[in-house]
Amino acid sequence: MISKKIKGRIVELKEKFPQRKSAILPALHLVLKEKNYVEKESLKEIAGLLELPPIEVFETASFYTMFPQKKVGKYHIQVCTNLSCSLLGAEELVKYLEEKLKIKVGETTPNGMFTLSTVECLGSCGTAPMMQINEDYYENLTKEKVDRILDDLLKKQI
Amino acid sequence: MKITIDNKEVEVDPGTTILETAKKAGIEIPTFCWHEKLDVYGGCRLCLVEVDDLPKLQLACATYVCDGMRVKTNSPKVIKARKGNLEFLLINHPLDCPTCDKAGECELQDYVFKYGSDKKRFKEKKRRFIVDRSQTFDDLKIGPQIIRNQNRCIICARCIRFIKDIAGEDELGDFNKGYRSEINSLPEIPIANQYAGNVVELCPVGALTSKAFRYKIRVWLTKKIESVCPFCGDGCNLFLWVKDNRIYRVTSRRNDKIDEGFLCDRGRFGYDFVNHPDRLKTPLLKENNDFIPVSWEEAFETIAKRFEKIKKDYGPDFLAGVGSPKLANEDNYIFQKFFRTVIGTNNIDHRVNIKNPLPGSDFKDYKNFFGMSDSIEDLENSDLIFILGCDMNLEHPIIALRIRKTQRKNGTFVILANPKRTKLKNIATYELLYKYGTEVAFLNGILNQIIDEKLYRIEENKIRELKDWVKEYDLDKVSDITGVPAEKIKTVAKFISQKERVIFLLGREIILHHQTQDVVDSVNNLILLLGNGRKGSLNLLWEYNNSCGALDIGILPDRLPGYLPVNDLESKKRFENFWKEKLSEKPGKSFNKMLEAILQGSLKAMYIMGSDPVREFPDRNFGLKALKKLDFLVVQDIFLTETAKIADVVLPGASFAEKDGTFTNCERRVQKLKRGFKPLYDSKADWEIICELANYWGSDFDYPQAKDITSEIAEVVPIYSGFKCEQIDENRKRLDLSFEKEKVRFKRADYKKIPDDKEYPFVLITGNTYYHFGTLTQKGENLNSIVSEGFCEINPEDAKNLDIFDGDLIKLESLSGKIEIKAKLKGNIQKGTVFVPINFEKIRYNLLMDKDKLVDRVRIRKS
Ligand code: SF4
Ligand code: SF4
Ligand code: FES
Ligand code: FES
C-alpha cells in the first residue's frame, strides 16, 4: 500500500509530463524512497493513479534493478555481473558474497541487514568489478575490499 | 535517388529504408524484428549491412537511404556480424526443434541454416525459464489459446508491437532486461483479445504457439489450401492446413486489400466445426417421428415425388426455397436456378433473420443495399469514419482493425453512434449513445442542425423541401427521443460539416432495423446536404461471409441474378434464353411472407439450404408454428439444426473446406475458396446436391465442377460479367456497380415512435458475442474453450435496482415467451436495455421476439 501523502504526489506528477507514461519512473522512485521496495500491489496502485494500463508499470519496474519487488535488507548489495565486471571476476565476488553472507542471490540475511542481487551494467566499467550498495558505488573490488566495506557498514550500525 | 546496393543500381524515393531498397533490388537481408505491418523496431540487429564511408555497420531496417549511398549486404564484415548475432541467439536457445511446433517454418532455423555457423563455442549452462519443475517443457499459458515457451524467444517484440500498436490492447509486455528479458502478460490480464492468435503467426520462432494446433502434427506433413473465412462479411483470406480429411490449423493468407495478414480469432480457431463428430453423415428421412438414414437415391425420389405432387395439385407458387448468406455463390446460383426453372417459382429468399426484409417494389433503392460502396482500403483515405448502429469489433473485426490503423497512422477521426458502448470508444473523437431504434430522429436532428447553422455547401434552393421535413426535429425534441445530449448533437453536426471525406458505416442494427430504408435515406440526405465537393459515402456492412453474394446472385423473391427485376420482360428473356426454360414473372415472397403464406394455406412445401430459421427468425413461435404446418420440408445443412429436426428429409451438405467456389465479401470482392478434401462421409457439396436433384427430376443441370458454375455466373449475371474463375485471385477486384449510378435525391424519412411499455421495460438487443459468430462457431471446441456460454448483459445500475448480481440466473420474459440466462453486469450497456447473444443454441433469444413489434421488449425476473 502506498501512503496517502505519496499518492497525492504521484497524482501531481501526472500533470507534469506531456505523456503520462513518463511519470512512471518518478512515481516508482517516490514509492521506493518510502519503503525500500515496490511490490506488485503498489505497482498496480501506481498504474491506477496514473491512469495507465498496469502492464506499462510492470514492464518499467522490472526493467530497472533498483526497484526490488520484495522487501530488501537495510543494505541492498547489487553486484554488476555484466561484461566488463564479469571479465574481471564479478562471478567470483558473487560466490564469495554468497558464502560470506550465507545467502543466495536474491535473498536477504535473517537479521534483515543485507540483500544480495546481481544487476546489469551500472556504467562504471572502467572501475570493474564493482557493486552498488543502496545509493553508493564501490569500485575496483577485491575480496579483501568487500570484507572491509561490509565490516564498515556493520560497524556503522553499532 | 540512386542507390548502389551490392553493385546493383536502384532508384528509390526519399524516405525509403535500406531494407526496402534491397527488397526492390531482389536482395535478401535477413531480419527478425522487422515486419512489414509493424512499426520499425531495430531490436534484433540481424539486418546489419555495410555502408560506404560509415565506420560501423548500419541497421538496414531503420536506416533511410540517401542519394548516392553505396551499400554492401554481403561483405565479409556483414557476414561475420550476422554469424555472430545468430551465435548469440543460440547461446541460450534450447534447440528443442524436434518437439517444437514451429520446426519447418521457423525463421531462426532457416537463418541459422543459411547464414549461421556450424560451430558452437559456448559451453555454459543455458538459461532456462522454468514454469513448473515437474514439467519437461517450460510451457506457460498466457491466454486461453496462447502458450509461451520463453526459452525459445528471441525478443524481437513482434508480438508485443502487434498487441499494443495494432490491436490496441495492453495485455502483453516485455519484462526484466538483458538476457533475463521475457515476454509475459499479467496473470490477472491474460492475452485474450479477439486478435490474440495473430501473435502465434507473427512469432518467428516457436516461443508462442496455440493450444489448438500444438503437438498435433508436423507442419510439413500437412497440405496448405487457399480458402476464405466462412464467418463474417470481411472475407479474410486463409490457408487451411489439412491432412487426411482434417483441418489442423488456419493461418492468414495475407491480402493487403482486406486483412493485411491478420485474422480475428474466430476465423483462426473456429475451423473445427468442420471435423465435428455431429456432422450429418447420410441423407435422413423422417418416419414416425424418427430419422432413418437413407440413400441419396431414396431421398431424391421422395423429394421429387412430394414436390411434384404439390406442384401439380396447387401450382409452383406453393413451393419455396430458402438459400443462405453463408453458402457459396455457386450453391446459391444453382439453388435459385432450380427453383426458377425446375419448380417455376420466384419464392426464393435468404434473409431469415430479418423481420421485414425491404419490399422489392422500389427497386432503385436496392443500390444502397448492395454492400459497401467504398472498399476496406478506402477507409484509409477518409477524414472521418462515422459508424452507425454497428458494434464493429463484434461484427467486422478486421474492418475494426483497419479503422484503428487509419486512426493511428493518418489521424482519421472516428464518430461512434450506437445504442451501446463499443470497443472502438478508445479511439473515437465522439461517442453518441442513443436509445435503440431512434436513429432516424437522431439523423434528422443533425440535418436540422446543419441547416439551422447554415453549415451546408449545397445551394439554398435545393434544400427547401428537406428543410421543411426536418424542421420539427429541434435539438430538445431529438435529445428527448434519442437520449443524446443536445449539446453533443450540435457539436457533432458542426464537426461532420467540417470534414471533406466522410465514410458512413452502417451495421447489423440498421440491417435488422424496423426503419432500414428510412435510416439509409437519412444518411443519404446528410451526404447530399454536406454536398459540393465534399465526398460522403454510405456503406451498409452485411453480416455474413457471402451476404452480398446471396443478394447479387438473386436469392431474392423479386430479383433475378444481378438484381434484374423478375417482372422486367427484357431481363426475364435474357435468363430464359440462357436457361432454356420459361420463367415466372410474378415476384415471389420474402421469407417472412412465406411463413405467413404457410399459415394461410398458400404455401405447402419448402426447401431450406444452409439456414436455420428456427434459430434465426426473429419470432421463434411464429416461425416454428409455420414451418411445422408445412406438408413437406427439406433441410440441407451440415448439422442436424433446429430447423432440420422438424424436416421431413434432411440432406447432408459439405462445409466450406470441402468445396470449391466463391464468396463475395461485404465490400463486394469476389474471392475463391478451394476444396481441402472431398465432402466428409456421404455428404455432397450443396450445389452438387441440387444438380443431382434437378437431374433426377429430368432436367439437365450439367456442371461437372464448381468452376463451371462460376463461369456461367460470369456469363449470365451482369455484375459478375468478365469474372473468369482462374483470374479471380490475380485481380482480386471488387465488383463494379457503376452501372447503377443514378442521381440520389433527398428523401423524406420520419421517425416512427417506438411505443413505451411499462410491463416490459427493457429493450432487447441481440448480436454476436466475442469469439463466436452466427450459429456455427459453437460447434467447435477451440472457441468454446474460450467462451462456452452466453450471458444477458445488463447495465449495473439496472441490475442493482433489480437486486441482480453478476452470474445470477435470471428470467427474461416477453409477451411471446421466456428464457433463462445468466446475467453479466456491463457498463457498456445503456440503462433500460439488455443484450443477448445469438450464438448459442441453448439461448433461444428469438423466443422473446415478435415479428410484429418494431422493437422487442422484455422484463427481468430473478430465477
Ligand atoms: S515471443 Fe516470439 S514474437 Fe514475441 S518477442 Fe519472443 S520471439 Fe518475438
Ligand atoms: S470472422 Fe471476419 S474478421 Fe474474423 S477472420 Fe473471419 S472474415 Fe476475418
Ligand atoms: S560491466 Fe559492470 S559496470 Fe559496466
Ligand atoms: S530487422 Fe533490423 S534490427 Fe531487427
Brief synopsis:
Chain A is built from seven helices and four strands.
Walkthrough of the structure:
The complex is a heterodimer of chains A (158) and B (863). Chain A has helices at 4-14, 24-35, 40-50, 54-63, 83-87, 90-101, 143-157; strands at 75-80, 114-119, 131-133, 136-138. By secondary structure, chain A is of the alpha+beta class. Chain A has two domains: 4-63, Orthogonal Bundle (Arc Repressor Mutant, subunit A), CATH 1.10.10; 75-155, 3-Layer(aba) Sandwich (Glutaredoxin). A four-stranded mixed beta sheet of chain A has the order 2-1-3-4, covered by helices on one side. The mean pLDDT of chain A is 93. Chain B has 863 residues and is an alpha/beta fold. Among the domains of chain B are: 2-74, Roll (Ubiquitin-like (UB roll)); 284-361 and 547-641 and 654-678, Rossmann fold, CATH 3.40.50.740; 372-540, Dimethylsulfoxide Reductase, domain 2; 762-862, Barwin-like endoglucanases (Beta Barrel). Helix content of chain B is 28%, strand content 18%. Chain B is built from 27 helices and 35 strands. In chain B, the strands form nine sheets. In chain B, strands 15-14-27-26-25-16-17 form a seven-stranded mixed beta sheet. In chain B, a hairpin with an 8-residue loop joins strand 11 and strand 12. Chain B is globular, with a radius of gyration of 29 Å. The termini of chain B are far apart. The relative contact order of chain B is 0.11. Chain A binds chain B through residues 53-56, 58-59, 62-64, 82, 120, and chain B through 170-178, 185-186, 189. One iron/sulfur cluster binds next to helix 4 of chain B. One FE2/S2 (inorganic) cluster binds at residues 80, 82-85, 121-125, 128, 130 of chain A.
